[in-house]
C-alpha cells in the first residue's frame, strides 16, 4: 500500500485522498515531516503552501537531502 505524508499546519485531512484507499499520514509542520520521512518509508509527500516553522521551499530542500 502506498503511504502518503500530508504536511499541513491547519488542515488535518485531504478529502480527495481518503477515497483512494491509500494510507495518508498527517503532520503539522516541516520539522515533524522531516522526522517522519527519515523514520518511515513514504511514497509521496504533499505539502501545503502555508506551514508553521518552515517555508515549503525550505522543507522541499531538506527532504531532498534526506538519505
> Outline, from the CA principal axes?
globular
Which stretches are low in confidence, meaning pLDDT under 50 for 5 or more residues running? Answer: none
Largest sheet: 3 strands, parallel
| CATH homologous group name | Response regulator
Mean pLDDT: 89
Whole-number tally of structural domains: 1
- One letter per element, helices H and strands E, the order comes to EHEHEH
The CATH topology annotation reads as Rossmann fold
Structural class category: alpha/beta
Give the helices and strands, then pairings.
Layout: E1 3-7, H1 15-18, E2 23-27, H2 30-39, E3 44-47, H3 56-65
Parallel strand pairs: 1-2, 1-3
Helix pairs in contact: 2-3
Describe the structure.
This protein has a single domain, classed as Response regulator (Rossmann fold, 3-Layer(aba) Sandwich), CATH 3.40.50. The longest helix has 10 residues, at 30-39. Helix 2 (30-39) packs parallel to helix 3 (56-65). It is built from three helices and three strands, in the order βαβαβα. The protein is α/β, with parallel strands linked by helices and 67 residues long. The chain is 36% helix and 21% strand. It has a three-stranded parallel β-sheet, with helices on one face.
What labels describe this entry?
3 helices, 3 strands, 36% helix, single chain, Rossmann fold
Write a brief caption for the model.
The protein has helices spanning 15-18, 30-39, 56-65, and strands at residues 3-7, 23-27, 44-47. With 67 residues, it is an alpha/beta fold.
